[in-house]
Amino acid sequence: xxxxAHSLIYSTNPEADRAFLKDVLELPYVDVGGRxxxxxxPPSEVAVHPSENSVGHELYxxxxxxxxxxxxxxxxxxxxxxxxxxxxxxxxxxxxxxGGTLGVYEPxxxxxxxPDVHVVRTRRRVLARARGxxxxxxxx
Length: 140
Hints:
By secondary structure, the protein is an alpha+beta fold. It contains 3 helices and 6 strands, in the order αβββαβββα.
């Protein structure tokens, strides 16, 4: 059913923040036209936290070693907040070139297994065939 997630970062300087994602974090990307870049992310996870009001969402990137991340950002002339141990992970925030901040953490919690997209697609095909909704083979 779900094959991925699309996260948004709002910025007063999108060109600078896109350059950060492309050149500093070295994320793979596609240009969908007009220098509008969409970046690929590693496998991700989502959690639902209690809140008094359901406004907004947060995006955190995960890394293997948050102190190594902070040092790498410093090498690029970018500032990070002090690393805080939250129990579930070591957390910092990097200040983006556009002025916003992006949370980054080294997880200390158990991580869920990532879904195997191939298995999901195969399961979907099997269910479609069982319901008689499969695609007919192409003629060559």
